[in-house]
Amino acid sequence: MHKKTVERMDVTLEHLKRDLAGLRTGRASLVLLDNIRVDYYGNQTPLKQVANLAVPENRLITIQPWEPSLIKEIEKAITAAELGLNPSNDGKLIRVPIPQLTEERRKDLIKVCRKYGEDTKVKLRAVRHEANDELKKQQKDAKISEDDLRRGEAEIQKLTDQYVQKIDQTLKKKEEEILEV
Using alpha carbons only, what angle is made at residue 72 by residues 69 and 78, rounded to the nearest 5 degrees? Predict the structure, then answer.
């Protein structure tokens, strides 16, 4: 019972981490390009399947297409994604410098982070609620005693509190990353 609850809470936390990784900070991260798709022989193909991606410096992403003919297509896809990135190329390699964030943009990103955090906490409370309902059902069906029910609810609340703490730590870390100059 608790194992399933822990797994669901883990999934909820991992989802938050993925969402936060997609937010652009002042640092280069390949996650920024995860959703970029390129027209490759008529198919919309993920960028990482048609090129080598690298982060040689803190503020630079390089993209080396497997076929030089894709350079223009990749640049167009990055620009169309409206990430605020301006790719440039030398005929073989695309360089994507990561610009500094403005103070206003940093504040907006922090608001987005906090919204993600609140949404995640709501999902966590839903998992707790379902776990408690399952315990109450077991108690009603005489599979567990009243004492077991109380103990189980206390354990689930303790688990929820631990995950709320992990969410807060994850958000704090991301906010520090955003505020980094």
Answer: 130
